[in-house]
Amino acid sequence: MASSTGEKGLIVSFGEMLIDFVPTPPWTLARHCPGGAPANVAIAVSRLGGRAAFVGKLGDDDFGHMLAGILRKNGVDDQGINFDKGARTALAFVTLRSDGEREFMFYRNPSADMLLRPNELNLELIRSAKVFHYGSISLITEPCRSAHMKAMEVAKEAGALLSYDPNLREPLWPSPEEARTQILSIWDKADIIKVSDVELEFLTENKTMDDKTAMSLWHPNLKLLLVTLGEKGCTYFTKNFHGSVETFLVDAVDTTGAGDSFVGALLKQIVDDQSVLEDEARLRKVLRFANACGAITTTKKGAIPALPTDSEALSFLKD
Ligand code: ADP
């Protein structure tokens, strides 16, 4: 329920925000785009009319201040952002393979996002979250890993619903085994987990994409497990029911950020009424809207510029 003052519940997203350098015609040029899954989720929530805050660390450099400005411009609370005096904002260099898929190389040497320390966390902000969302990149190294663990603990103790999208970026991890171990090490803390089909295969080491494989990731405290399947929509699992919801046919030009848009739309719709998670018909409606937001995001280039507003999503659903 919304608070008695009518204020909407706050969704706090924790983790990295960085600059992607994306090749652009005539391919010797690159344009820089803001990126980072947790930041995308915060902006997705805010564009849809929800209340969002971002917690993370940026370099005290032009890129860092530009990224903080993008969050503010999109209505995201920036009181959880720290700036590191020494390290630079994280950078990713994107190359396009001949089959159209993207490959990433990262500047993390270490970058500012990895240097967030537990004592730098804005605990008051984290305690005011109704939903606390995070990924797994912040688990890769210290001190950010300890900051991640503390933020999660504080949010949980204060009663927040924990939402986890591992958002695997395999090249960033020392090895696939390390990625699997660390990602799964915080699995049973989350109330909601969203994985893509690629992550499901990676985490379970099973190529059979069926309900049994997905359910092998179930844990007893989980309220909702989601597997997103790109143009095939998503499947959902709760204690009492499971099923799938189709997405929409669109001319997809760039799928970057589709999963973050989906997650933002999901969290924005459940933050003030978590009973949705126990009612299949209502949950299916919520997932239809989340699929619509994911689909819309694929129709434009880049992640943040493609995240829909509430009215864009509603008029897409009316057409
Ligand atoms: P991720 O970006 O995390 O890999 P997906 O690619 O599965 O996640 O996309 C998330 C959601 O976005 C999907 O469940 C679907 O609703 C929507 N989506 C993604 N790609 C397409 C597409 N090509 N056509 C329509 N909807 C899509």
From TrEMBL:
Any single biological process term in GO: fructose metabolic process
EC number: 2.7.1.4
Single GO MF descriptor: ATP binding
Enzyme class: transferase
Keywords: ATP-binding, Carbohydrate metabolism, Kinase, Nucleotide-binding, Transferase
Glycoprotein among keywords: no
Domain spans labelled Carbohydrate kinase PfkB: 10-309
Pathway listed: Glycan biosynthesis; starch biosynthesis
Domain of life: Eukaryota
GO cellular component term of the entry, any: cytosol
Catalytic activity line of the entry: D-fructose + ATP = D-fructose 6-phosphate + ADP + H(+)
Role noted for this protein: May play an important role in maintaining the flux of carbon towards starch formation.
Similarity section: Belongs to the carbohydrate kinase PfkB family.
Protein name (Swiss-Prot/TrEMBL): fructokinase
Organism: Arabidopsis thaliana x Arabidopsis arenosa
